[in-house]
Amino acid sequence: MPNADDLLVLKALGLTKKYGRRTALEHVDLAVPAGRVIGLVGPNGAGKSTLLHLATGLIEPTSGLLRVLGSRAAADASHLARVGFVAQDTPVYKSFTVEEHLRMGARLNPSWDSGLAERRVRQVGLRLDQKAGGLSGGQRAQLALTIAAAKRPELLIFDEPAAALDPLARHGFLENLLEFVAELGASAVLSSHLLGDISRACDYLIVLCGAKVQVADGVKELLDVHHRLVDPPERLPLGVEVIQGEPGGRRVIVRGTAVLPCPVEPVTLEELALAYMTRALGASEGRR
Ligand code: ADP
User: Which of 101, 103, 118, 258 could form a disulfide with 237 if both were Cys (CB 3.0 to 4.6 A apart)?
Assistant: First the structure.
């Protein structure tokens, strides 16, 4: 019988990370199921990279628990092989050719799929003899994605993978990423401050702001329980939580499943994420 935690790609309980006196993550709880494309959104400084670096074992928590695919992050070599990581600005070795990158990947990773790597490189129009230093930002991102995916990980982690790309290259890169994830049957976590990218690519959302998780759930589940109320009354039914706007205001975003006493409109994922971030930033300004 698999342990229930094995079915989670990420599980965090009271996860806290401090850099000196600065708290980058504070008491984060998460239970993210496998098989999802997870969008991790939040403004700069929210703690996104910190969470991803903890998940890849690059840094250690200050306190609390973190499980990645059912084990401690980077627990051992076999666990490391199950997780692929593409760091910010998609690092590649400038003086190495594309082919040398693939050869290095094969040597470092026992589960390396050279057929997949070579096919993908051809598909995205990279030449094997091109030096990585001469590639465009979009091509570099594709190479880094190929290297992370060719080790056939169960979980792919991307820290702002497409932030430096122009909109067209970003679109192509995200499409490719989704194809890859589907082909591998993997889960993926994708951090971004670009809400449009997250809405396009993800089916699970984590909003991080001010070192805390503001909301985390499947996109469908979130869209089902959030609504915009038009001209709502001052008093709302029990169990309806105002996320953005004032009770009694003209347009109010709420969470709740109760029957609502006014016209109701759907909200988009972007509006929902913005509402949570605005609320968190408002609360932290209120505390100052
Ligand atoms: P994000 O990826 O959402 O922009 P980060 O995780 O990089 O956020 O940063 C969260 C907070 O932790 C920020 O206040 C940042 O300045 C701080 N921080 C991140 N890394 C370090 C570090 N190595 N040393 C000190 N502070 C850091």
Answer: 258
